[in-house]
Amino acid sequence: MVIDKRCESFASIRAALTLPVAPLQFLVSWPAYAVDDLRRSLSSHDELVKENLSLKTDQLLLRSQLQRLIAIESENNYLKSLLRSSQQVKGKTLIAELLAVESEPFMHQVVLDKGTREEVYVGQPVLDANGVMGQIIQVGPITSRVLLITDPHSGIAVQNVRSGLRSVAVGDSYSGKVRLMYVPKTADIKPNDIFITSGLGDHYPEGYPVGRVVAVIKDPTHQFADIYLQPSAHLESSRQVLLIWYRRNV
């Protein structure tokens, strides 16, 4: 060190000595570089994990929003079909929404968010966008109760669109369908026949879909045929219904 400081010619020797010393310098500094690389790698990994979690959260939020938009679109399409149905009804109409569904297994009734405040009355027909749902049996100030056509206490006068045969349809709580009463075995009824309201009762106007024939059973031991209809109305899924003001004596 003294010679290097006092003798300028020693600079060339010092430069030559740096060649064998360089590997030692790299070897000494390698742990520090390795630690820095590991720290950067861990930091990048943590950032990637956080970014991945953030992307998954955003994806879940977008999926939930997409499902909500699909539900809104479906409800919008249903309301459009319900509006088209209301345009075919003569007289006053009102759209109501379901508040509750009767939980008893053999009682098919629902509660609506409209009552006497909207001039809802007992016996008023209730439809959805596809057909007849039932009639009002109880009215309160702001709510009302509907007896669905599949309830065993329900009865509705119907007519076969194809043959013109008239009958009375009652609810069958066991099957969730509608059954025709006292139909002779010789009656002209076939599967997929459509039955509509005949208008002969005091509650339902004429010409609204009630159901489609799904079973024709002619048991030799029974006097009458067993005819079952699948309701046209979507009783299990409709959230909005149509109240119509109909009185035959008016």
Report on this model:
With 250 residues, the chain is of the alpha+beta class. Helix content is 33%, strand content 30%. The protein contains 2 helices and 12 strands, in the order ααββββββββββββ. The strands form 2 sheets. A 6-stranded antiparallel barrel has the order 1-2-5-4-3-12. A 6-stranded antiparallel beta barrel has the order 6-7-8-11-10-9. β1 (93-101) and β2 (109-112) form a beta hairpin. The longest helix is centred in the first third of the chain and has 78 residues, at 10-87.
Task: Report a brief summary of the structure.
By secondary structure, this protein is of the alpha+beta class. The chain has helices spanning 2-6, 10-87; strands at 93-101, 109-112, 125-127, 132-139, 144-148, 155-160, 166-172, 177-184, 194-197, 209-217, 224-231, 240-244.
